[in-house]
Write a structure and sequence with these properties.
It is built from 16 helices and 15 strands. By secondary structure, it is α/β, with parallel strands linked by helices.
Length: 498
């Protein structure tokens, strides 16, 4: 099966087909940079990263654009309160968000356009809408989109023209317009706009752009008349994305985006996140308190993007344990001894090596098959994570069994198959990629520890308990803790999380 997405526009699962074969133009609605991004924002950004990585994994040449909204009511009010210009106020928040994204392993977009840089493009787009009869100007210097002129209005959200526009960012009586349902393309200048440098000259009067026109102008300028994918949170379906469609298609006469994907909200300990509820959490706060970036990445990825994600401290701890398990497994694969050349093998080892090697290779093949099927099915990341950890469990069992006979290791091709499968899956998930930054996988240390574990196993088999205890003490002194189980012995650094 090829890559399939649940298209918000058609309300069904569809095979993904880009405008140009092998290429994908993606526009993602980014943050309004008037404060530090919270974990709900980053749930959406992690969804964007998954889309970006999956497309590249499937061989697409991706043009990925995510905007920064740096001029709107919120940024103007905040900048004015601080007696700063828009750029002075918003720039640090953009830099902080990118730094936090880097910490979580979110792949950089090709471009992060800021709305204030594209005002000329917005003016041109508004003029096209005026010329084509989709918009009208009012005496105060504002320009409005006449939604009655666009017959397809409401198809994305399922709303009709008789419904109001809850969620509109400007009160209906703040500006004069022909119909309360019409939305602003351009807002006539106000004193507070001038105070923070949020006012520009336009043919119909000095003012600033409306929120919705910003994304249309940036997307059309940087990707083209028709996008392959438009991404956002579910709260943007109406009115923002509905208005983007009306503006863009009104101006170009072409479909604006072939596919629309929307991520559901994040909740905190089962409740809606809000400052008034006292559960408003930023990524900056979590990183500052020492939360593992890899654990946070795992948690934010763990639920399907069309399902609500519940952020809990217990869930974060479980994610830290999952990350530690992946890091332990990678370390085992890197340090596990390879089988000697055929001519050097002792009698009887070949069959055991063949069975163990086949078992590892088959587990790797099954994992990649299940992992791929899950992600091709509308980015079923929960299924992909399940495939990964089933593989880890089965491969660990095979490795434990191999350690039961210290006279040989595993075939090099089997170990390479396991490493390649783990690498391919993490190339999409990015969990180990982030986790390695906080845990150095020292191959020399790993090899020494595995050798000491085998020596201890020999001592225990010989009932030489004092030697077995001495080896354990030696490992403990080196900062290594052992975990004995029915299937073998695992180890980890005492100072490591998990």
């Amino acid at each position: 099966m090829g890559l399939h997405f649940h298209n918000t526009l058609t309300r069904r699962l569809e095979p993904f087909e880009s405008v140009e074969a092998g290429k994908a133009g993606v526009y993602a609605c980014g943050p309004t940079i008037y404060g530090h991004a919270h974990i709900g924002n980053f749930r959406t950004f992690m969804f964007y990263d998954l889309v970006h990585r999956v497309l590249e994994w499937r061989g697409y040449e991706v043009r990925f654009v995510m905007n920064f909204t740096d001029v709107d009511d919120k940024t103007i009010r905040a900048a004015r309160a601080k007696e700063m210009t828009l750029d002075e106020y918003t720039a640090p928040f953009a830099e902080a968000m990118l730094g936090e994204s880097d910490a979580l392993g979110i792949r950089r977009a090709d471009l992060y356009p800021r709305a204030t840089v594209y005002v000329d493009r917005m003016i041109d787009l508004i003029q096209r809408l005026l010329d084509r009869g989709f918009a009208y100007a009012t005496d105060d210097g504002s320009v409005w989109y006449d939604i009655s002129s666009f017959e397809a209005y409401g198809r994305l959200s399922g709303r009709d023209l008789e419904q109001g526009r809850p969620g509109e960012r400007v009160a209906e009586d703040e500006y004069a317009k022909d119909d309360a349902r019409d939305f602003a393309l351009w807002k006539g200048v106000k004193r507070e706009d001038e105070e923070v440098g949020a006012a520009w000259d336009a043919p119909w009067g000095r003012g600033r752009p409306g929120w919705h026109i910003e994304c249309s102008a940036m997307a059309l300028a940087e990707i083209g008349d028709t996008l392959d994918l438009h991404l956002g949170g579910e709260d943007l379906i109406f009115p923002h994305h509905e208005d983007e469609i009306a503006q863009s298609e009104g101006a170009t006469g072409k479909p604006f985006s072939r596919v629309w994907l929307h991520a559901k909200h994040l909740r905190v300990e089962g409740e809606k996140m809000s400052k008034s509820a006292g559960n408003f959490v930023t990524v900056r706060e979590l990183l500052d308190e020492g939360v593992s970036p890899a654990a946070l990445r795992h948690l934010l990825l763990s639920a399907h993007y069309r399902s609500e994600l519940n952020f809990t401290r217990a869930g974060l701890q479980a994610s830290a344990r999952a990350v530690a398990r992946l890091l332990d497994f990678e370390a085992r694969l890197l340090s596990h001894p390879e089988a000697p050349a055929i001519g050097d093998r002792g009698t009887g080892s070949g069959d055991a090596e063949g069975e163990a090697g086949r078992g590892i290779r088959d587990a790797a093949d099954r994992a990649i098959e299940a992992f791929t099927a899950a992600l091709l099915d509308d980015l079923n990341v929960a299924g992909a994570l399940a495939a990964l950890f089933v593989f880890v469990n089965e491969a660990n069992r095979r490795l434990d069994a191999a350690l039961g006979d210290p006279s040989h290791g595993l075939p090099a091709d089997a170990l390479e198959a396991a490493r390649a499968a783990l690498g391919e899956m993490d190339g999409v998930l990015g969990i180990l990629e982030v986790g390695r930054r906080s845990r150095s996988v020292d191959a020399e240390l790993s090899a020494w520890v595995e050798e000491r574990i085998r020596a201890r196993a020999h001592a225990r088999a010989d009932r030489d308990w004092s030697e077995a205890d001495r080896i354990r003490d030696e490992l403990t002194a080196a900062g290594v803790v052992l975990e004995d189980s029915a299937t073998g012995t695992r180890w980890k650094k005492l100072s490591e999380e998990g």
